[in-house]
């Protein structure tokens, strides 16, 4: 590309002012509680498609990062679970280095959540239950796709898929080397965009340090503190 495309003039126009996100507005100073509140608010927005899409960053053993979107499938106080192919590039990265970061962005709400933590595979049984709960076409798709590998053509993929369909008939789709990862978070940050551009950032992190209640505050969750960060 020889010409520079100028996109610096693009400015997001806020259709409605955002509420100031103040520490005192949190009914419980607990990152999982707040995540649930924000996620529920995102779920009911009709202008928000796939609110569970998150950009997952991994880093390989040589220190090179790579990022891609995955869908968040469950969350609770243990952490955040997504599913993927265990032979994929991201799986290889996570085998070499379990440290990951994930970011969600909800444009209509001008909100973003950043998660940092480390991954472990969930149990084979749990992965199987989820795999078989997916639409049959998705199960077959996962079985047919050697995710992240170079393949000769689109037809190659279609042929594998129709071969599998023929072979299986109405039978159950066997789970490929595929399953869930649980991100156990050590930090969760909540970002609220503001019209005046002085955005709000509240970061919760796991820490045993004593909260000074000036910069570092005790969360309502054992072993966690929170702090406000400059935007
Ligand atoms: C919105 C969105 C959601 C996606 N969800 C998943 C997912 O849940 N699991 C997955 O393996 N790939 C998902 N993908 C595809 C990945 O982004 C990626 O192409 C694939 O996992 C291969 O990544 P890798 O080669 O870095 O391992 C999604 C893509 C998009 C755009």
TrEMBL record:
The lineage of its organism: Eukaryota, Metazoa, Ecdysozoa, Arthropoda, Hexapoda. It is an enzyme of class 1 (oxidoreductase). Keywords: Flavoprotein, FMN, Oxidoreductase, Pyridoxine biosynthesis. This is pyridoxal 5'-phosphate synthase. Its cofactor is FMN. Homodimer. Catalyzes the oxidation of either pyridoxine 5'-phosphate (PNP) or pyridoxamine 5'-phosphate (PMP) into pyridoxal 5'-phosphate (PLP). Pathway: Cofactor metabolism; pyridoxal 5'-phosphate salvage; pyridoxal 5'-phosphate from pyridoxamine 5'-phosphate: step 1/1; Cofactor metabolism; pyridoxal 5'-phosphate salvage; pyridoxal 5'-phosphate from pyridoxine 5'-phosphate: step 1/1. Belongs to the pyridoxamine 5'-phosphate oxidase family. The keyword Flavoprotein applies. The keyword Cell cycle does not apply. HAMAP family: PdxH.
